[in-house]
Amino acid sequence: MSLHNEIYDQYGRNNMSHHTELLEKVQEYTENHDKFVEKGNKAAGTRARKALSEIAKLTKSQRKAIQETKNNA
């Protein structure tokens, strides 16, 4: 079993699904940011800010999971 399959965050998600969720949020942010900047869509600006907030939460928990794995290895 590889190391990445053994890493779970506080919500029981494994590291790879957490990584995938982070990438999806970055994609969501990018799409909404482009709509906001290029088309002036204010709602897209709000969605972009929300995605950034969620990205911050995900990165914090991912950093913690990586550190715990590193310390336990």
Overall description:
This protein has 73 residues and is mainly α. It is built from 2 helices and no strands. It has helices spanning 15-39, 42-72. The protein is elongated and about 50 Å long. The model is unreliable at 1-5 (pLDDT under 50).
List the helices and strands and how they pair.
Layout: H1 15-39, H2 42-72
Helix pairs in contact: 1-2
Number of strands: 0
Q: Could you state the order of secondary-structure elements as H and E?
A: HH
Approximate strand percentage:
under 5%
Described by strand count, sense and barrel closure, the largest sheet is: none
Determine the structural class based on helices, strands and strand pairing: mainly alpha
Question: How many separate helices?
Answer: 2
Distance between the termini: 14 Å
Principal-axes geometry comes out as elongated
Q: Which residues sit in consecutive blocks of at least 5 with pLDDT less than 50?
A: 1-5
Rg over alpha carbons: 15 Å
Portion of residues within helices = over 70%
Mean pLDDT: 84
